[in-house]
User: Which sequence fits this backbone?
């Protein structure tokens, strides 16, 4: 999904605009550089062994590079019991449809994830459609960039409790 100018205000409200702007540069991977770092990584010490000494990446380094907060309530990808966060005991996919106004095609759904390829904001979308698209884009950022898995292309519905209250998202780290 590409970054559409009409959802920038929602990304700014949630504190994820800087992360979304990095999206284009993340698609280009400097494979020799990554390989060099992998070869120098020492998992027993959680450091890189460099010619000038040991070094590691700290949380503050990541916060600086990604423009994200690190001092407030944290978000974890391990929200496995997200059903308890759903208001009124609704089913997760019913809540998804309520927030986004649409369900992914059945062939795109796999238990608690959906392929990101089905979501596309139409050029002639009205404000209500844009408002419903913004949570999907944010869920995509969380699922594929911050808390990615091997597929890198699936949107996980565990992020529903966060995007349901987008105005509160700015307080999460």
Assistant:
């Amino acid at each position: 999904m590409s970054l559409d100018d009409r959802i920038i205000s929602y990304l700014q409200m949630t504190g994820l605009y800087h992360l979304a702007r990095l999206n284009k540069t993340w698609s280009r991977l400097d494979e020799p550089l990554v390989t060099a770092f992998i070869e120098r990584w020492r998992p027993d010490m959680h450091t890189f062994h460099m010619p000038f000494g040991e070094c590691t990446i700290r949380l503050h380094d990541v916060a600086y590079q990604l423009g994200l907060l690190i001092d407030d309530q944290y978000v974890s990808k391990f929200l496995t019991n997200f059903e308890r966060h759903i208001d009124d005991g609704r089913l997760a996919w019913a809540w998804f449809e309520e927030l986004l106004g649409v369900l992914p095609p059945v062939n795109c759904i796999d238990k608690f994830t959906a392929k990101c390829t089905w979501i596309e904001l139409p050029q002639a979308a009205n404000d209500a459609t844009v408002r419903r698209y913004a949570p999907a884009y944010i869920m995509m950022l969380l699922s594929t960039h911050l808390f990615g898995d091997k597929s890198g292309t699936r949107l996980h519905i565990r992020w529903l409790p966060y995007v349901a209250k987008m105005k509160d998202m700015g307080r999460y780290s």
